[in-house]
User: Fold these one by one.
Assistant:
Number 1:
Amino acid sequence: MKITNIPVDLLRQPQWNPNQMDDGNLTKLGRSIDRFGLVQNLVVRHMEDGTYEMLAGNQRLQVLSQSGIMEVPCVVVELKDGEARLLCQALNRVHGEDDLGLRAELLRHVLEELPEEEVLGILPDTRMGLESLVNLGQDSMDDYLENWQVAQAARLKHLQFQLTGQQMESVEEALERLMPEVATGHGSSPNARGTALYLLCRRYLDVTGNPQ
């Protein structure tokens, strides 16, 4: 394994890579690279025809190519087809889950220094999601950290969906309509959007009844 600068025209994106990013998040990724630079190297493997196949960083390459950059730093690995595909999936799929209390505290600090518009211009959060998150909980951070270990068994779980733009608009509208009910019936919920989604699913199950 080595790190070297490789011309962009020698890098090719594999057709088998399932990881995709919509135009909105590509734009945010571009803003992040413009602001902070390329802080994470691409991962590639050398091919017999002299090109390099992308294993991680396909979206970063797409953004960089549009900016006119001629070469980028890459981690070069020597792997067979099966191992290359496995590494690609590991790099794209194996990651931790945010502790929502700690993430809320982190974002509160960010918003003390940066305008909300700048934060939303880089992060994939919606405005409603960001505001719900930074208002998470009523306890002080000291109390939260003190009870963190005890609360692990009750940590919130994460769901990930892939939606079209039109589908996302419908989901956001449904959740927004339920938010007043969440605020009224559940107080200062630590996960208002998750509670709204739960209520939506619960009502569907109540209407359809139990399957026979």
Note: The radius of gyration is 21 Å.
Number 2:
Amino acid sequence: MKRAFLRNGLIAVLAFAGLGLMAAAHAADEAPDALIQRLSADVMESIKNDKAIRAGDMARVVALVELRIMPNVNFQRMTASAVGPAWRQATPLQQKRLQEEFKTLLVRTYAGALAQVTDQTITVRPLRGSQEDKEVLVRTEIKGGGESIQLDYRLEKTPDQGAGWRIYNLNVLGVWLVETYRSQFAQEINAKGVDGLIASLTERNKANSKKG
């Protein structure tokens, strides 16, 4: 399952990237499933038309992820969930460092996968729930390049006016992103504490940067 999660990471990024192209005013009153459907199609078209991304220009891809994708993620919630109980015991400075390094890790991961996206298509399944729900699960299916891929989102309605829906977890083939990292981070924290996890993330990010 872990191999499948890593192998299909680029498929997940395709749909996830779509969240970054929204206009905030429009997104505020748009249903979460309709939002993902529309924006996934938009990002697919953008990737097809961007020769630099298709050529593997990582600086351009990283910039795209930073500017378009990450602002639409509840990143503090995602980091806190991934770190687990140790987040509440961490100092404000440690929390800040954890969020920075975790964000860098995901940006590089998403950027590397986004650069490989080609001709996948996305189908959004009917949304279950009511209009009053503040958190929803949106299920999609990615087709292209062989097997079909299950991709699910957990989104929350933000209290800020005009902010719309934001993603806080992602599921590929039954593997939730936050839970996957939580298991890894727990081992680091148990062995070396919060500072040890920060150091480990920092080294991992440096290594990823050198790889390009």
Note: The longest helix spans residues 177-211.
Number 3:
Amino acid sequence: MINLLPPKAKSDYQYARRSLALRGWVIALAFVLVGLGGLMTFGLLQIHQAITDNKNQVARAQAILAKEKLTQTESKVKEISSSLRLATQVLSNEILFSKLITQIGAAMPPGAVLSSLNINKSSGALDLNAKARDYVTASQVQVNLSSSKDKIFARADIVNINCTTSKTEDKPDPYPCTITLRALFNDKNQFLFINQEPKS
């Protein structure tokens, strides 16, 4: 086929075809640029989200560590407090028996003797047993131990008094009466380790 078009028309057709091809490349390049822009935006959003998640994880980890340290500190404080309370209880029940027995002996009225004493674990009081020659003397034991001037006990209550007489014995008991008392120490007394003044 012979192309009989004038040279100018031929040139116009060639430029039109080239323009159409170039337009296609421009459109394709625009799509590529839009795609790259979308990928970059998505990547930046992902990076920002990862940074935010990482910061949140770090904050949670720090909060957990702080809470654990607080719990450990509170636990140690409770252990120390328990140890101090136990030491105080032990010391408060450690009685200086040498001083106590001497003082009780001095407070006994004539005709009465101390036979035994025991610490009552349930109430922290002191149970005393004494023997006396008669009921009046046994009662006087309670009066003397409760006396404020002796400063031994805050109070001494009579649990019981029992007087027995036996006519069959060759040698009568010089102390036929037995008195049992329950005594509570004063808040400040010289018979507990906890109340001892340090020596200078």
Note: The radius of gyration is 51 Å.
Number 4:
Amino acid sequence: MTVEPSLKVDRREGVLRVVIDRASKRNALSLKVLDELQEVFTEHAQDSGLKFSVLTASGDKCFAAGGDLHELARVTGADAAAGMARKAKAALSAIRSFPVPVIAALNGDALGGGAELAVACDMRVAAAHARIGFIQGRLAISSAWGGGVDLMRLVGSARALQFFCRSEMIGAPQALACGLINDAASQGESLDDALERFTAPIRQQAPQVLRAFKALRAHENGRGREELDEIETVRFSETWAHPDHDSAVERLMNRME
């Protein structure tokens, strides 16, 4: 039986557009989705004609509602959790290290692992109703896929710690004010229009210049990355294996039934 891809990929006029196409699953990030993301961004990394990439999702409810809970429920124990986290980090690392800017177009809420995916991108443009929620604590776990490191660098350690500890849902105005997103659609403006407005100056740049700009960012992000990622993985695997996480997942799954 042929398995349908979870992504829609289109490359035209120097722009790679990647769409997570699981609206019925709230665009949850299964391991299959993560594998496909890694494959797509790795495959197109050598395309010298690209200027930038847009990563978005189908529908208008969720950019990505974190990991696929039904799949992740089968991950048991600290060792298995650490293995899953490292596999997911490899996918997000392909986005971080992509040689041209990657812009997340947040069509809806980015939650948990979905928020980590959003901050793995270089820039973020949000629909007016979109929110970002680093809500891992609600499942009694910590960040897993590199998002803790990304968020600290993006908004500062104190504010990042606040977002994690309070499991806040951050609306577009607040996210814009603190630098978590780069732009947002105004009321009545579509996400596509806001994205076109934001990217218009980028389209005027030469591909090699955009690659040079991204190379500087990649160098900065690479300092201490492996060490920080490993610390995050160890802490996450410990929280995943804790009974509090099992209880939190069970409560959530019961509400979904």
Note: The mean pLDDT is 92.
